[in-house]
Design a protein that fits this description.
Elements: E1 11-20, E2 23-33, E3 38-42, H1 49-56, E4 64-69, E5 72-74, H2 79-84, E6 87-91, H3 102-106, H4 119-132, H5 148-161, E7 166-170, H6 178-195, E8 198-202, H7 206-212, E9 215-220, E10 223-229, H8 235-243, E11 262-271, E12 275-283, E13 287-292, H9 298-305, E14 313-318, E15 321-323, H10 328-333, E16 336-339, H11 343-347, H12 354-359, H13 375-389, H14 405-417, E17 423-427, H15 435-450, E18 454-458, H16 462-468, E19 471-476, E20 479-485, H17 491-498
């Protein structure tokens, strides 16, 4: 890959350190970025990536160290100063104003039109920027109706309008389809090649790192481990540097185990305009994977089974009794739990403590007759789950929003395991967590199944589904395409069904 870099770095991070109470988030971290390169930053959750990004964008200040821009020392006290220096960031969840239109969102942070807004000029400039990115969006439309991919494009357009020199992309692909990821990568390469922008790309998806990066920097436990050109890095060496262990120690393989009796039978479950005639059995101690491409409505089936968005027709049997699940409260009483894919918005109360989150779904167990929480009992439960799931937190009273993604995921597991379910529906259980935490979650799921918990695992990570599942139900556009036993499931057979091709297996 040919780089359009200069010998002069655009951004230098020199011996940056940052501490939060007892946690050393960064320790003497150094990094150089050059114009016209895509520089990947990788590491486990808790490695210090987020802290470094916040320092670069002025959200937090380093305890020691120095930042240099084009060789000159700079102090970035807030996000406005970062923008002034040409440093911008886009995130996994775009930060747009839904009630404003596209053009207004692009220019919201810097009205260069004087006291009065020159609307015609603003709309023309917005159209010019988006057109230059190869993106077709009506700049007069409200941002509330945009797809996630379109929102990302608007965020990039906003950065370009600020004359961006360094663009930070923090997990930008986590919620995008393959097609949308390709479009985003085309845009990133265009910014690199045509505008000489330096891009810092953060992702847990290593295949994306190898596809787009020119150089790769590894952080581990707040320390700089390495910076190397892509050509000198392998997946195995990268994972080893990220976690300090070899890659074959992470990826759990499906364990052969005998499943028990049927605990659940779903027959012809349907919801108008969403999914149709879904039928399957689930057994005690079984992991049933749900696979399919974006738009297959896998999640909608899970939401129906938990009563969030009940089905219109069909039946659900639990322990040979037909049940009607029309609310999450009913589902919980019947022993069904659902762990959402969106832990930030729906799964956890981020400002609340680890303890409060663990007991949130079963709070009635901790109330005395006057409705007051039994703090001692609640704390005992939280401590048990902390030890059982090895949750890393300075304190059980720590705000859960301050934990790494992997530990947040463990707290969400604890929350639902504390309801003592018979069946748990896991929707994207390893989304947005690193390879080390992913392996721990996989091992946890295997252990739960071995202890008799029945599990439905919805995942867009096909290798994960293949490694975890006893059987796999494949969906396409709301319809069930087949169920494969683990012995007959391969990436090719699952993808063939997901794409509507019959493979001769019933």
């Amino acid at each position: 890959m040919t780089l359009k870099t200069s010998n002069q770095p655009i951004l230098e991070v020199l011996n940056i350190s940052k501490r939060f109470d007892m946690t050393q988030a960064l320790s003497n971290v150094s990094l150089k970025m050059y114009p016209g390169e895509i520089h990947a930053l990788v590491g486990e959750n808790g490695a210090g990536k987020s802290t470094l990004i916040k320092i670069l964008t002025g959200v937090q200040q380093a305890d020691q160290g120095e930042l240099r821009l084009s060789g000159a020392p700079v102090k970035i006290s807030n996000s406005q100063e970062a923008q002034t220096y040409g440093i911008a960031a886009i995130y996994q969840e775009p930060l747009l104003f839904p009630d404003l239109d596209v053009a207004e969102n692009i220019f919201i942070s810097h009205q260069d039109h004087g006291f009065f807004v020159h609307w015609d000029k603003m709309y023309k400039e917005a159209e010019k920027i988006l057109s230059g990115l190869g993106v077709r969006i009506d700049v007069h439309n409200s941002a509330s109706g945009l797809t996630l991919a379109a929102q990302q494009a608007v965020e990039i357009a906003k950065a370009i309008s600020l004359n961006v020199r360094v663009l930070i992309m923090d997990e930008p692909t986590a919620s995008l389809s393959d097609h949308e990821v390709k479009q985003l990568f085309r845009t990133a390469r265009q910014l690199k090649q045509e505008k000489n922008v330096a891009i810092l790309f953060i992702s847990h998806r290593l295949e994306e790192v190898f596809e787009i990066a020119d150089r790769i920097t590894v952080l581990r436990d707040g320390k700089h481990i390495s910076t190397r050109p892509l050509s000198t890095v392998t997946k195995e060496s990268l994972v080893r540097e990220m976690v300090g262990r070899d890659v074959d120690q992470f990826y759990a393989t499906r364990k052969t185990r005998a499943v028990g009796k049927r605990i659940c039978s779903v027959k012809n479950l349907s919801k108008e305009s969403t999914f149709y005639d879904i039928s399957f059995d689930l057994h005690v101690g079984e992991i049933l994977g749900f696979a399919g491409l974006v738009g297959s409505s896998r999640t909608d089936v899970g939401l129906a089974m938990f009563g969030i968005n009940p089905a219109d027709s069909g039946s659900i049997e639990l322990d040979d009794n037909i049940v009607e699940i029309n609310s999450p409260q009913t589902a919980k009483k019947l022993g069904v739990a659902y762990m959402t894919e969106d832990r930030h918005q729906l799964g956890l109360a981020m400002p609340m403590s680890v303890t409060s989150n663990i007991t949130l779904a079963s709070l009635n167990q901790y109330l005395n007759r006057y409705g007051i929480i039994k703090r001692e009992k609640e704390g005992k439960t939280a401590k048990e789950f902390k030890n059982r799931l090895q949750i890393k937190t300075p304190s059980l009273e720590q705000e859960v929003g301050t934990l790494s993604g992997g530990n947040q995921q463990k707290v969400m597991f604890s929350k639902w395991l504390n309801t003592k379910p018979k069946i748990i529906i896991l929707d994207e259980p390893t989304r947005g967590i690193d390879v080390g935490a992913k392996a721990e979650v996989h091992a946890m799921i295997h252990e739960l199944a071995e202890k008799g918990l029945s599990i439905i695992c919805i995942s867009s990570d096909l290798p994960e589904v293949l490694a975890m599942s006893d059987r796999i139900l494949i969906m396409r556009e709301g319809r069930q395409m087949g169920i494969l036993a683990s012995r007959e499931a391969t990436q090719e057979s699952v993808l063939s069904l997901a794409m509507g091709q019959k493979i001769g297996i019933s």
